[in-house]
Every structure is written in C-alpha cells, then in structure tokens.
Amino acid sequence: MRTTSQRLAKTLCVRLSEADDQALAQWAARLGEPNRTILVRQLICELAGSGPYFLGNDLNALREAVRELRSVGVNLNQLMRAINSGQVKLTTSEDIEKVSKVLAATESLRQELNAIILHSRNRGMRYGLGT
User: Fold this and answer.
1) Model confidence over 11-47: pLDDT tens digits?
2) Would the pTM count as exceeding 0.70?
3) Could you say which of 36, 57, 62, 66 would form a disulfide bridge with 32 (CB–CB 3.0 to 4.6 Å)?
4) Where are the domains of the chain?
5) What is the DSSP secondary-structure string of the chain?
6) What is the Cα–Cα distance from 38 to 55, expressed in whole angstroms?
C-alpha cells in the first residue's frame, strides 16, 4: 500500500475571488468539513467515481451508526450464545419479541448506513457538481 505522500504527489493551486472563497467556506461549514483542502480533494475523487468519502457530519453519523451496530452485534451474540447453550428457549412471546427487536434494530441500522452512503454519493449532485 502506498503512503499518503506517495498518493498525493501532485499539487493543485486554485485562485478564488473573495466571493468564491466565502462560498467555499460556507459550503465546507454546511458539510461539516473544516479543512477545505480535504473537502476539495474528496469531492474531486467523488466526481471521478472514487467515492464515497464521508465528511464532517456524514462521518459523525457513520461513526454513530457503527457504534450502534456494534452494540446490536454484542446483544445478538449474547442472545445466540444463550440459545445455543440451552439457557434460553424461544418458546415464550417475550423471547420472540426480544429477537424481533434485535432484528428490527439491525434492519434500522442497515437502512441508516445505506442512507448515509447514498447521501455521500449524491453530495456532488446536490450541489450541482455532477454531470
């Protein structure tokens, strides 16, 4: 795997008017990415089809969804261990309801992660950058 300095061997300098610079700063703030260089580089990569990249708010949402998914996975693992060891039998409506809740939480997280990824993929289109 190449290092960051090897991957980023080219430099792009862009001159902006004051209005363009302010617009870029506002755009960066809207996306939750304070580093405008990272923002521009990631958006170029997305437009070239190398994305999605998660910026600021999207990245925070993704981290939260992963944290929740980890918690659901721990709960599911505990439940399955109890079922496999014979400690829990899925015969009562309460047991079935618990499994249903875990399945619903998993599906909800799947939908949330898909929405975050779609949001990131469509970022350029939302701001008129796509073709």
Assistant:
1) 888 899 999 899 888 888 887 778 888 888 877 777 7
2) no
3) 57
4) 12-126
5) ---HHHHT---------HHHHHHHHHHHHHHT---HHHHHHHHHHHHTT------HHHHHHHHHHHHHHHHHHHHHHHHHHHHHHTS--TTSHHHHHHHHHHHHHHHHHHHHHHHHHHHHHTHHHHTT---
6) 9
